[in-house]
Amino acid sequence: MLRLGPPPPGHRTVAWAFGGIGLSLVLQIVTGIPLGLVFAAAGRQDHLQDAPGFIAASVLLAGFCGLAAFTIAAARMRWSVNDGGIRKGIGFWPSFGLTVGVLIGFGALSKGWEKLVHPPKDTHVVIKALEEHPSFWIVVLFALGAGVLAPIAEELLFRGLLFRALTKFGLPAALVVSGAVFGALHAGAVPAKLLPLLAVLGALLALLYAMTGSIVAPMCLHAFINATSVGQTTGSTDGQKTVWSVATLIVAWGLIALLRYGYGRGTSLSEPDLAPELAPASDVTRPW
Fold first, then answer.
1. Dihedral sign, CA of 70, 72, 76, 79?
2. What is the pTM of this model?
3. In 10 A of CB 64, how many CB atoms?
4. 167 neighbors 209 (Cβ within 8 angstroms)
5. Is 252 helix (H, G, I), strand (E, B) or coil?
6. Rounded distance, CA 233 to CA 114, Å?
7. Fewest beta carbons less than 10 Å away: which of 43, 68, 83, 157?
8. Is 187 helix (H, G, I), strand (E, B) or coil?
9. Distance CA 102, CA 98 (A)
10. What pLDDT does 44 receive?
């Protein structure tokens, strides 16, 4: 059952939702230039695209750029943080069950797609850099950037703003367009054969948001996928891989919980909570 009503009113919501994603890319380019000059001046590596330190710092910087872009775009749209999805949903256990279901479904789909298209072994620039240069501080930067900041920033931009604004054109259109944009913007980071799979992931995360009424569940699932990917390419033993995955998840989920309880206590004035006929009387006391 879908839990989202019409998108909140605002100023040029669809334009600024796309604009927020564009602004994030511009900020990454603008901040990436001095970062590249610093690494080039230090003579760390002849080709920056092969320098793990530069890649790790860029990923971390991209997360901050995404958060800044969301803040600016939401302000221009006249949306609150609640409007962006950090709000009450259907409750912890229903959200947990739906999240696990989406994870299992996407996992099965991923296995089938990989068997069909046979993507290269190095499926992501982050994973490739981690496998080639698994130093402690490089892994820390990747864990914070890819495992913590990226899930939060990308969910706020792609699901909290873009998908939510596009629901004015209907749920199917919003799922397809937001998912396609999410997949397309990973071009260059993953093999082209995996871009359709990422588009499906984007649509599934948006659907999870629609079913739970809160962006917290997609954030947690996104963080789980990214953190386990970082962890599984780190360390030489299964124990070390598990430690990195769990540590990254604790930080990511802890930050998501702070966002939820710090900014999502109530419902924005521009958007009602669950429809009266869908919301149980005790919903106001639920933690999510």
1. positive
2. 0.88
3. 16
4. no
5. helix
6. 18
7. 43
8. strand
9. 6
10. 56
